[in-house]
Amino acid sequence: MRSHSLLDFIAQAHTRGSLGSGDLAFGLPFGMLKSGRDTAKVAKSAEEGFKAIETISKGGDALSIEEEEIPYIEYLSARAETNACLAWLPPTWKRILQKLPVFSAHPLTGRKLAALSIMAVARRLANPNPRQDMLQKLLEARDDEGKALSPQELSAEAFVLIVAGSDTIAK
Fold it and tell me: How far is the CA of 131 from the CAs of 30, 33, 136, 137, in angstroms?
């Protein structure tokens, strides 16, 4: 019974961390409190999400991405547990172990969590928010040639903010 309570505590910590990191980093919570569930809407297809980000950044005015709901905390926890087991192994062993059923969901959870970052970037671009948060700083960033970050770069940086923020706050 005690381990079940510990797992509940860990899930609650991830939930609270995710709620806080979403609001602080993106100026917009992921909607879990409003819906009363630990699910989040994500881009169903990363490619379509990137296309939508590119269209909006070039002056398009409507956000058109097919969405799906994912069990966000479940995916975040599964990814964290898998990373804790596999992170220290050599690449060859990782590839072998990821074929085992216990680790087979790892690539899927990563893609679905990345889809959350794609949606965060797309929503911000579709509904500009002058709030100075981490995502705004990424949107304003330019390279040495004055070019803005690509949709893939923005989404990758947003992904880091989501995972690192929820892990930091949860611990």
Answer: 16, 21, 7, 10
